[in-house]
Amino acid sequence: MSQGTLYATQQIRSLAPKALVKHFKLDVKVTDKDDVYHKNFPLNKIPAFVGPKGFKLHEVIAISLYINLADPKSKLLGKNAAEYAQVLKWASFANTELLPTEAKVFKPLNGAVPYNKKQVDEGSAYLEQVVGIFESRLADFTYLVGERLTFADIFAASVFVRGFDFLFGQEWRKAHPNTTRWFKTIIATPILAEYLADYKFIEKPIEFTPPKKEKKKEAAPAAAKKEQAPKKKEVDEDAEPPAAPKPKHPLEALGKPKAVLDEWKRVYSNEETRETAIP
Questions:
Q1: Where is this region: Disordered (predicted)?
Q2: Domains of the chain
């Protein structure tokens, strides 16, 4: 009898439950979304699980725990209650803090979402704090919980894949030797080796490349310029005002004389005054 159907895609949260199904050799069908999925999971989130008698699960940690418990011999959940709680702690921490912060940084860089430098810088700073928690634990221990491999390592390593895909280049790996060593150890385990054994590490982190701007079409030639009106002569405020016109002589008001004055003078000077000059 089938143990159920696991809906998993290429999204990184699908990797751990998919690997566990194969590791435990469960009779679980692993498939992409179909009509049954869309009918039962309206939020369209991956992974999802449908079991016998209408049993349904969403949320990756819940699904992974259910798959682990399907094998009573599984030792991936710790050897006691304290370790079990720590397994849940690390898995939850990776799911809610590590993966979303990685996405906040690399998605604007690879063009999946609009680029925002402030968002990327803030995300990078917080991501460094989150990774610092792993780095501190792994400085003294090989695994996240106890002294052996647990689901916490499997799930956290699968989530770290996105960071190593886009952000954690050679310089980063040198600065975080404990996390890098642990990641290489976990992806080489039989549970993840089939999916990540040939994993290729990047040399440099992805960088934002601004999209090329389309060249604007050349504007149509401008219309002919209108003839400019002649400029008015500027008034020199410092120049002296023109002199007032001289007043007219009072005799000018009488108009021009009708007699020819020059002719009268000539006659008066050369002729006899009584007889000719003064008729």
A1: 212-257
A2: 4-69 (3.40.30.10), 81-196 (1.20.1050.10)
